[in-house]
Design goal:
alpha+beta
């Protein structure tokens, strides 16, 4: 489970209830605690971009902050942390197992 700032609380709650959180939990059992960034998603006033990263891999998801029917959607996946922009590397959230 991710804990983050209040402004993204709804998006984080939706992420935590999604299959994406189960994916992160499985990876965390193998790779250890991830680094996590929660920030604004480009092009949307109320959506969040959640980045979860380890030394060997990273994932990004888009999570709606407003409409409950919108799914959590994977945006990107990579293997090198330098593939992430600077905002996505602002590790501002924690993983709670």
């Amino acid at each position: 489970m991710i804990a983050a700032a209040d402004s993204f609380e709804l998006a984080v709650s939706r992420f935590n209830a999604s299959d994406a959180a189960r994916t992160v939990a499985g990876l965390a059992r193998t790779l250890g605690e991830p680094r996590i960034s929660v920030g604004a998603a480009a092009g949307s006033a109320d959506a969040a971009r959640i980045t979860v990263a380890w030394d060997l891999t990273w994932y990004q998801w888009w999570v709606a902050g407003g409409e409950a029917h919108e799914p959590v959607a994977e945006l990107a996946h990579g293997t090198e942390l330098d593939q992430l922009d600077a905002a996505a590397r602002q590790w501002n959230a924690k993983w709670r197992s």
